[in-house]
Amino acid sequence: MIREISRAGVTPLQTGIVPRGSRVEIFQQIYEFFLVLGTLVGVVVIGYMLYNAYKYRDGAEDVYRGEEDELPTLGELPTGGGGGRKLFLSFTLSAVIVISLIAWTYGALAFVEDNPALDGEDAIEVEVTGYQFGWEFTYPNGHTDSTLRVPVDTPVELTVTSRDVFHNIGVRELRVKSDAIPGQTTETWFIGERTGTYIAECYELCGVGHSDMTAEVKVMPQDEYDDWYANTTAENETDGGNETDGGNDATGNESARLVGTA
Ligand SMILES: [Cu+2]
């Protein structure tokens, strides 16, 4: 479950038990941790319950049921075995498990929230603007695109906003999601660990074209990305998309017009 991740010193190495790495890795570890622990707790609780149900079944012999005067009468709560020791033990154990879970998850999520991509010098920054109904990606050199191209294994810092109504950009496979709110910017990050094409979708019902509000996210090999980026300028639009008419075309499929260069 614990893997070492080093990306040219960009992402901190796993330290201790709190997971570090890309969002995909962190959320995967949280999922696995909860699955294992939840299964374990479930097995212990249900197993102990069944064990006692069998042990104290009606007609069982050789079972100590307490002195006659210790037995609870109808309507009285039983004190539990050993003068409440069992109750205390199970309560303490549950508290330790629950508090550790909260602390561990908090540590993992604090790292995600902390935007570790900012620490790395080779992190790339892209501004994302949502509009009815599409996404616009602006690179540091001023180049604007309707496809998000990023190099593989590199932290990407997104600064997200909207120019009309509330939107929310998310890429499921990359475990990244962020509000796009007019007049405000929201920051998030991700690392594409495998090359390929992913789909960014809008996750905030924003109008009639909401479900068509997608954009391609291309995670490219570093050299291909460098070649592509070297040929971009503030003016050109490498994929043929047109932000002004694309924005009002509620039913048009933006990606149908894409002529990818990647
Ligand atoms: Cu939207």
TrEMBL record:
Keywords: Copper, Electron transport, Membrane, Metal-binding, Respiratory chain, Transmembrane, Transmembrane helix, Transport. It comes from the Archaea. It is a multi-pass membrane protein. InterPro entries: CcO_II, CcO_II-like_C, Copper_CuA, Cupredoxin, Cyt_c_oxidase_su2. Its main location: membrane. Residues 233-262 are annotated as: Disordered. It is found in: Membrane. One of its GO terms (cellular component) is membrane. SUPFAM superfamilies: Cupredoxins. It holds the Pfam family COX2. Residues 121-231 form the Cytochrome oxidase subunit II copper A binding domain. Residues 243-253 have a biased composition (Low complexity). The chain crosses the membrane at residues 30-51, 87-112. PROSITE patterns: COX2, COX2_CUA. GO terms for molecular function: copper ion binding; cytochrome-c oxidase activity; oxidoreductase activity. GO terms for biological process: ATP synthesis coupled electron transport. Belongs to the cytochrome c oxidase subunit 2 family. This is Cytochrome c oxidase subunit II. It comes from Halorarum salinum. The lineage of its organism: Archaea, Methanobacteriati, Methanobacteriota, Stenosarchaea group, Halobacteria.
